[in-house]
Amino acid sequence: RFAASTGWKRNILIRLGTVFSCVAAVPALMAVRFDDSATYGIMYGCFGAGSLVGLLIIGQLGHQRLDRRLSGGLFVCAWCITLLGLTDNPTFAGPLIAAVGASSVFCSNSVMVAAQMQLGSKIRGRGLSFVYAVGTACLASGGILWGTVARAFSPGVALGASGVCLLILLAITHKLSIAAPGGQLAEPIKDTV
C-alpha cells in the first residue's frame, strides 16, 4: 500500500533501488578485488573517508534540489564504479572508491530526505522503515547479482558492468522526481528537544 499510494513514493523506491542494487558491487567485490588484507583495509578506509567527506559537504546543501543532487551523485558514482572495474592498482582505485563513498552518501541521503519530507508524522516511522528495508533488500540482491557476474567473468568485469548498468538506469529514471510536490513538507517537523 505504501508504494502504490502516490507516484513520488514509487519514484523514491525506484531511484533507491537503482542506487543500492548497483553500488552493492563495490562492498561485495572489494575483498576479492583487493585480496591482500592490508590493501583491502586501506580501500575500505578510502570508502569510509569518502563517505565522511560526502556527509560534510551534503550538510551544507540543505534539502533543496534533491533531484539534481541525486542525479549528480548517481552520475559520479556510476563513472567511478566503471573506472574501478578497469583498475586494480590501489593508487588509482583508492580515490575512485572514496568518490563512490561520497557520491553514494549523496544518493542515499537525497532519497531519505525526500522520503522524510513527504511522510506525515503518523506514518513517518513506518514509511522510513519500509524505505530502509527496500534499500537493504536491493543492496543484498545487488551483492548476489554482481558476485555471480564476478564468479562467471571477473571482479573487474562485474564492477564495470555495475557502473555501466547504473549509467543506463540513471538515463532511464532521471525524470522520476523524488522531491516533494511543490517543494513543500508534508507537514511541519516539530523539534521536540
Percentage of residues in DSSP E strands:
under 5%
Determine Rg (CA atoms, Å).
Answer: 17 Å
- Number of helices in the DSSP assignment: 7
Number of strands: 0
Q: Please, what is the oligomeric state? A: single chain
Distance from N terminus to C terminus (CA atoms, Å) equals 32 Å
Average of per-residue pLDDT values: 88
Main sheet properties: none
Indicate the overall shape: globular
In N-to-C order, the SSE pattern is HHHHHHH
Range of helix content: over 70%
**What structural category do the secondary elements indicate?**
mainly alpha
Low-confidence stretches: none
Word description of this protein:
It is a single chain. The chain has helices at 7-23, 25-33, 37-58, 66-84, 90-118, 124-152, 155-173. It is 75% helix and 0% strand. 40% of the residues are buried.
Give a short summary of the structure:
With 193 residues, this protein is an all-alpha fold. Helix content is 75%, strand content 0%.
List the main descriptive attributes of the protein structure presented here.
mainly alpha, 193 residues, globular
Q: What does the secondary structure layout of this molecule look like, with pairings?
A:
Layout: H1 7-23, H2 25-33, H3 37-58, H4 66-84, H5 90-118, H6 124-152, H7 155-173
